[in-house]
Specification:
2 domains, 5-stranded parallel beta sheet, globular, 14 strands
């Protein structure tokens, strides 16, 4: 019995709880805690924002049971009013976090957040339209889908795209940090990693989805379909004279309309996959692909287009 009680004693007590706490405090202070203290946006609040926006976009699927046509406007309006108020506060925190030198007043960040939320709200009908095309693409592109409703409820690719369509609008407004949090919430849930800066056209479908990576400067056209494990990444980053990576440079692929990219394919660099091309499974592509071409394993890929590969 004494041996069992000894084993049950907290490890922290044995090591000295006060010393552990002090070491953790010093580690926190060493990482610019003054910038983050009290002004970091909340992941939990942003998860609620996305969930409520999902219900605004698809109220008959994610709204309250028994919602009638007469009650639709009331429900959408009430929910949207709540979600925009929460988003306004999170934007204020995000803008304050980005203001490293605290040069802006609280009133300024509040005003900037309110303006950004108003701009974001005006884009919501277009976001809903794009999501509608994604739903139809999922239903049409997967013979296992029995209805668009099944795709809305069950498909991880649509979950990832709902997060991305929201995050991309926030990214376009120049909102710091929050778009990445929104995209990473989907990444953690679905295994699909889409940077909020990526431009993705309508009727986009990711089938199965796990392991898909889409980089920041990727441009994807309309009616494109990807399968699991596809990477649209960068080959390398150019460096300045001091050897530091130069950011904000186009470095990811351009995928034109009506392209299909099968499972495990990796496409790297600022290359163009021409309209209607098909990229087979587990293919490694670092050169341009002509419109309508088919690239499969075992087929040597030669550079095409006059411009060469590029990054």
């Amino acid at each position: 019995m004494n041996a069992l009680l000894q084993l049950a004693r907290p490890v922290a007590v044995e090591a000295g709880l006060s010393e552990i706490v002090e070491a953790l405090r010093r580690a926190t202070i060493a990482q610019d805690s003054d910038q983050a203290l009290g002004v970091l946006p909340s992941r939990e609040a942003l998860a609620r924002v996305v969930a409520e926006l999902r219900a605004v976009f698809f109220p008959l699927h994610f709204g309250p049971r028994g919602l009638t046509e007469e009650g639709l406007s009331y429900y959408i309006g009430r929910t949207l009013d709540s979600v925009l108020a929460e988003l306004r506060e999170q934007m204020r925190l995000g803008l304050a976090f980005a203001d490293e030198n605290r040069q802006k007043s609280s009133a300024t960040t509040i005003a900037e957040g309110a303006s950004a939320v108003a701009s974001f709200a005006r884009r919501l009908p277009e976001v809903r339209r794009l999501l509608g095309t994604d739903v139809q693409a999922a239903f049409a592109g997967d013979p296992a889908a029995r209805s668009p409703d099944e795709a809305i409820f069950c498909y991880p690719g649509l979950t990832a795209m709902l997060h991305h369509r929201i995050a991309h609008e926030l990214h376009a407004l120049g909102i710091p940090l929050i778009p990445r949090i929104v995209s990473e919430l989907a990444h953690a849930t679905t295994g699909i990693d889409i940077h909020p800066g990526a431009h993705i056209g309508e009727s986009f479908f990711i089938d199965h989805g796990t392991g898909v990576v889409i980089g920041e400067t990727t441009v994807i056209g309309a009616r494109v379909r990807l399968y699991q494990g596809v990477t649209l990444g960068a080959r390398s980053l150019p460096k300045d004279e001091q050897g530091r990576c130069i950011k904000n440079q186009p470095r990811h692929p351009i995928v034109e309309d009506d392209v299909v990219i099968y499972a495990g394919a990796t496409i790297l660099g600022r290359v163009t996959i021409g309209r209607g091309a098909t990229i087979g499974g587990n293919v490694w592509v670092t050169h341009h692909v002509e419109p309508g071409a088919r690239v499969t394993q075992g087929q040597p890929l030669r550079p095409s287009f006059e411009s060469g590969a590029g990054i």
